[in-house]
Amino acid sequence: xxxxxxxxxxxxxxxxxxxxxxxxxxxxxxxxxxxxxxxxxxxxxxxxxxxxxxxxxxxxxxxxxxxxxxxxxxxxxxxxxxxxxxxxxxxxxxxxxxxxxxxxxxxxxxxxxxxxxxxxxxxxxxxxxxxxxxxxxxxxxxxxxxxxxxxxxxxxxxxxxxxxxxxxxxxxxxxxxxxxxxxxxxxxxxxxxxxxxxxxxxxxxxxxxxxxxxxxxxxxxxxxxxxxxxxxxxxxxxxxxxxxxxxxxxxxxxxxxxxxxxxxxxxxx
Length: 269
Fold this sequence. Notes:
269 residues, alpha/beta, Metallo-beta-lactamase, Chain A, Arc Repressor Mutant, subunit A
């Protein structure tokens, strides 16, 4: 029975909501794995140490879903406190080097033994190129990082390797596995994954229709399209909105439906 322990990373903010979730899994052997590393907040480290001590456990693995700072930047602090722990993630050249950690590379199809429980690595790119989901097959449980968030949407950070087409394929792949529960990197656990994953696909289809309608109305720039679609959005969130719009435009361009002429986007004639 997989019973992850939720540990708050203590980093609320405009882009992180209430903050990041990290998950501690303790095996009957006393070996323990932490999924995602948080940001190195002292309270997070204290919570981790307390949970390990209460269970007489030792941290053997830290599994990182992707290299964005809110998921990976706490790795060095955790490594200093738990020097025998191994740090695993799918490589993201040019990004991973920001963190002072001896990363051990993992890849699609790897199975990570956590002392009687195994997590399979599923490459689920789109939000970032290195994004993975950790899949526990026997319980049909997925640790999904930034793939989905209940009650919100996920930014496709085009300027930092985000890819909307890949993201939609990652969502569909997880949906096809018929998961029973999702433990995301932000927000509450998801107990009806099919409904949420299906809603995410429909949300992106709706946004694509809005982008096409905006282009048809004569709006040609990312800024103008974002303003029309996300009218009234908090200013702090507008950069993320522009990233999403650009991701949609790049998808439509790859499908030969629109053109880009020096930042002027138009429906292909």
